[in-house]
Amino acid sequence: MSDLTEATDSGRRAQTKTRNRDAILAAARRVFAELGYETASVRDIIRRTDLASGTFYNYFRSKEAIARALAADAAERLRPILRAERERATDLEGWLDGVIRAYFRYLVEEYGQASGLPHVRIDATPAQRAVFEELRESLTGILGDRLAPQADTDFLTAGAIGIARYVGEQMLRRAPPDPDAAARFAARMILHGLPAVARDG
Amino acid sequence: MSDLTEATDSGRRAQTKTRNRDAILAAARRVFAELGYETASVRDIIRRTDLASGTFYNYFRSKEAIARALAADAAERLRPILRAERERATDLEGWLDGVIRAYFRYLVEEYGQASGLPHVRIDATPAQRAVFEELRESLTGILGDRLAPQADTDFLTAGAIGIARYVGEQMLRRAPPDPDAAARFAARMILHGLPAVARDG
Amino acid sequence: MSDLTEATDSGRRAQTKTRNRDAILAAARRVFAELGYETASVRDIIRRTDLASGTFYNYFRSKEAIARALAADAAERLRPILRAERERATDLEGWLDGVIRAYFRYLVEEYGQASGLPHVRIDATPAQRAVFEELRESLTGILGDRLAPQADTDFLTAGAIGIARYVGEQMLRRAPPDPDAAARFAARMILHGLPAVARDG
Amino acid sequence: MSDLTEATDSGRRAQTKTRNRDAILAAARRVFAELGYETASVRDIIRRTDLASGTFYNYFRSKEAIARALAADAAERLRPILRAERERATDLEGWLDGVIRAYFRYLVEEYGQASGLPHVRIDATPAQRAVFEELRESLTGILGDRLAPQADTDFLTAGAIGIARYVGEQMLRRAPPDPDAAARFAARMILHGLPAVARDG
DNA sequence: GATGAATGAGTATTCATTCAT
DNA sequence: TATGAATGAATACTCATTCAT
């Protein structure tokens, strides 16, 4: 084999490598979302791939490892968006709205009906939890900055997160889901409470 | 054997029986809370007991069955309290406060630090989900009654539930947890939003 | 307690004892016939009794032991009848007929439709095998006596036994089963072969 | 790797695979024959193999499945032979002889002393029953065709089957077993009865 | 790197038998 | 003697992971 061929070969190989890795990741994402981390088996994952079971372990050390990779990847995709929203905002409401919208758009992209997934619980997999944690950190950071020192920041953040979490899940049930409207709703509810959002539904 | 002895005998036996049943239930409650339903094994449960593996099946038909029993029991303990709160309340805030307080008290009783449990995720077991569902139904019922028809009841209920869920979880992390204060916080946040609760923490 | 009472008591006790023993035996007979020895469990047996599981072991040392008892009992009931038939007979045909009739009557009594049992395989339990073995011994004994020394007694007995076994099973499927006719058929088939019994069905 | 190596590789692998499969089947055949289907455990089977317990399930879905495979395989091996015998025969005796001989040869091959098996009950496993059922169908078919309509075909077939069954079992006890002689005996006994075969043993 | 069979610890559950009452 | 709960070894089967090819 000439160097040229070899170069081509290794190019192809690298290509195959990422293609396989991506295929496994994609399969795992779906399987975890459908069955939950515990119930899903490595065999479930590779079965949705044209690879053999042993190949899984060329790419990931364990079932736990792929879940972690998935989680890290999801968190890393969301993180810069959240940061951008944080910088763009001028007031608290705008900021909340931006951050939650980013999260909701992520949810729709990942678990919206187009994904063909059945009803999705939003924290059944490590990836979902990681993404949610990303949101939590953003909220914690900002609220910690802006609230009066005597405020119960933990509880406040918890409340805000709760709204985002369950309104987000509810949004995913709608056809079509509207992440922007849902985010506006959540942000207003966080800031002004139930009566404010009850008036104009 | 005299009747007296016999009565004592069967009394003791019945006593042992309930003691064992309770021990298994308690162990299961802890194990499920620590590991989650899927991860927990029947062996994990009986290992925390001084009973033999087979004994588990003298009391419960299956792992699923004990989870159901735990869930039904928990839901049934909460239900009458929720109903009572519903009747006692005169305004929406009082009502929200009462219902959430009932839920939070239940959480503290069940998963407060006294239980020696590490950090508890509030919806990892069928029992927790059943209790939470009980709360959801209460909230859904009341909010459905009181809100203007054009309001987005699903989203509103989702938001209220989210606040209760995550403020409750946060409360469990405190030493000592104060369910009444936390409930007041949650109810006010639901009704008036973040600024109202940020002022006086 | 006076001696008198005691005597009465122990009389009652003995009575209860045999009643219990018989109840367990009867239940076991049915359960073994329905499920086969392997599949039947001790719990299956005592469940058909108003006794408790532990009581079983006051009467029989083990599941195997009750099966042996059942087998011995059945064999002992059949044995004198077979012996009587053997003595009554004047020729080989009469003798075969008598012995097989005794066996078939036993089958009908034990496993005929009146027993409410579903289709019965005739050698699924130790008792059935013991009874069958009794028949085999009778046949072996007689044929050994009467056959020419150069005859292949083992094969001949095997053949005769086979006819009795399968014609007997077939008979049990009929409503009502007619053990006497079936025995006559079997005896004639053994002695004269298929054409003899084919003529007059 | 060159194609050649690959071919060799997969050849070896396929070889191992069939070797393992055959080893499991052989072990199962023996274990079932010795202990009966109910009593035999999957562990008993793999223990007679140098494989690990999980490996069993790479080859068969369940204990039931391997029993079915064994039964189907046995029946399929016997079926064409029986059919051939049926076509070759010119008279009833020849036909009976052929069919029973096929069955007896199968028995010797499968459970003859070379197998090292202790005394074998001929209908304790699904495979044995399947093979026997194959014989029964052959006998039923032919006798149904050739007998006078008023004949009691059920009883006649039962008798013929019984002879084959027990003479076959008896034959297996001999060293060496002679399936052809035994078949001739059985066929003659079916057709002419005991005296015919008693004369020349 | 890809394959897929092999591994064996682990799972829920059953059941003959024992034993305190 | 009767009771029935307790026992623990055994069962069929699963699955994350390894490894020879």
UniProtKB/TrEMBL annotation, chains A, B, C, D:
<protein>
    <recommendedName>
        <fullName>HTH tetR-type domain-containing protein</fullName>
    </recommendedName>
</protein>
<keyword id="KW-0238">DNA-binding</keyword>
<feature type="DNA-binding region" description="H-T-H motif">
    <location>
        <begin position="41"/>
        <end position="60"/>
    </location>
</feature>
<dbReference type="InterPro" id="IPR001647">
    <property type="entry name" value="HTH_TetR"/>
</dbReference>
<feature type="domain" description="HTH tetR-type">
    <location>
        <begin position="18"/>
        <end position="78"/>
    </location>
</feature>
<keyword id="KW-0804">Transcription</keyword>
<keyword id="KW-0805">Transcription regulation</keyword>
<dbReference type="InterPro" id="IPR009057">
    <property type="entry name" value="Homeodomain-like_sf"/>
</dbReference>
<dbReference type="Pfam" id="PF00440">
    <property type="entry name" value="TetR_N"/>
</dbReference>
<dbReference type="InterPro" id="IPR023772">
    <property type="entry name" value="DNA-bd_HTH_TetR-type_CS"/>
</dbReference>
<dbReference type="InterPro" id="IPR050109">
    <property type="entry name" value="HTH-type_TetR-like_transc_reg"/>
</dbReference>
